[in-house]
């Protein structure tokens, strides 16, 4: 087995687990770290998709009770013609409504979106996303009467969040940051906006991953590549489990400013290094 390749896969798995649900862009970090350690090529692109699903499984495990009850209530509502299961049905429709903008735009512009997955675009996304996070948090997140119960989210709230999720199609912008900003503008508290972003990540990630996985040439897979894939999935899952819990606890006490500042500083530093030819980005 190629131990170096396995170690690189583990590093990317750790990066994914840490960054998937905090507003600093998991895709952007995987692209940049992958470039830095030489983890590139067809397998690397497929690998990044699979370990994102590993991180999503952490959401399913942590929120399984809510997900299970909502699915059951969804069908109870249908079979009882609205007499029972209203909350679960409403929650399910909210997730669907929030997923519609991403589904439509993703299908129509898939190839163009994939062509943007370059380090240079990530750097711009880091800076622009960080500045937006600072601005929108300042304007909206500290307003009084913020909604803090997930069962009270309306279809309008969900659609606004779904529209903002489109920003995540640009590498470096961050799906988490985009949906949380949408949540703020829709009137949600920061912890609730973050939790709702976890739920709508499930269909978003499955949908965007399906095409890549179906089109991948699995004939290139070796024992080392399969082992790397499995290890990376597990690592991303475990790290994401830890990070989600810590992130929600953090948001109940402190603002998101630290993540925005990190993004702007990291993006600006990388931009300076590239513009001065100290580093050259080639993928």
UniProtKB/TrEMBL annotation:
What GO cellular-component annotations does this UniProt entry give? plasma membrane
Q: Where are the transmembrane segments?
A: 12-37, 49-67, 88-109, 121-140, 183-206, 226-248, 260-279
Alphabetical UniProt keywords: Antibiotic resistance, Cell membrane, Cell shape, Cell wall biogenesis/degradation, Hydrolase, Membrane, Peptidoglycan synthesis, Transmembrane, Transmembrane helix
Q: Which GO terms describe its biological process?
A: cell wall organization; peptidoglycan biosynthetic process; regulation of cell shape; response to antibiotic
- A Gene Ontology molecular function term of the record: undecaprenyl-diphosphatase activity
Q: How does it sit in the membrane?
A: Multi-pass membrane protein
List locations, semicolon-separated: Cell membrane
Supply the EC number(s): 3.6.1.27
Q: Which reaction does it catalyse?
A: di-trans,octa-cis-undecaprenyl diphosphate + H2O = di-trans,octa-cis-undecaprenyl phosphate + phosphate + H(+)
Q: Which Pfam family is an annotated match for this chain, by its short name?
A: BacA
Function according to Swiss-Prot or TrEMBL:
Catalyzes the dephosphorylation of undecaprenyl diphosphate (UPP). Confers resistance to bacitracin.
The family this protein is said to belong to: Belongs to the UppP family.
Misc. remarks from the entry:
Bacitracin is thought to be involved in the inhibition of peptidoglycan synthesis by sequestering undecaprenyl diphosphate, thereby reducing the pool of lipid carrier available.
Protein name from the UniProt record: Undecaprenyl-diphosphatase
Give the organism, scientific name. Answer: Anaerosacchariphilus polymeriproducens
């Amino acid at each position: 087995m190629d131990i170096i390749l396995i170690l690189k896969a583990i590093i990317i798995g750790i990066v994914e687990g840490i960054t998937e649900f905090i507003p600093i862009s998991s895709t952007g970090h995987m692209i940049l770290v992958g470039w830095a350690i030489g983890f590139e090529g067809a397998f690397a692109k497929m690998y990044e998709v699979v370990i994102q699903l590993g991180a999503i499984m952490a959401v399913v495990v942590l929120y399984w009770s809510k997900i299970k009850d909502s699915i059951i209530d969804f069908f109870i509502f249908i079979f009882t013609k609205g007499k029972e299961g209203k909350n679960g049905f409403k929650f399910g429709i909210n997730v669907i409504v929030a997923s519609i903008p991403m589904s439509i735009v993703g299908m129509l512009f898939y190839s163009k979106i994939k062509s943007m997955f370059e380090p240079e675009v990530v750097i711009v996304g880091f800076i622009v996303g960080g500045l937006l996070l600072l601005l929108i948090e300042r304007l909206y997140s500290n307003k009084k009467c913020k909604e803090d119960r997930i069962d009270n989210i309306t279809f309008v709230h969900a659609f606004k969040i779904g529209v903002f999720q489109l920003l995540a199609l640009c590498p470096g912008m961050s799906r988490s940051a985009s949906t949380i900003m949408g949540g703020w503008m829709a009137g949600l508290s920061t912890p609730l906006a973050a939790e709702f972003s976890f739920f709508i990540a499930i269909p978003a990630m499955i949908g965007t991953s399906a095409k890549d996985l179906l089109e991948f040439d699995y004939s290139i897979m070796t024992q080392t590549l399969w082992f790397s894939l499995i290890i990376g999935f597990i690592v991303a899952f475990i790290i994401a489990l830890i990070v989600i819990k810590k992130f929600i606890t953090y948001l109940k006490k402190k603002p998101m400013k630290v993540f925005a500042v990190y993004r702007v500083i990291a993006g600006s530093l990388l931009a300076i290094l590239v513009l001065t030819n100290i580093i050259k980005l080639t993928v």
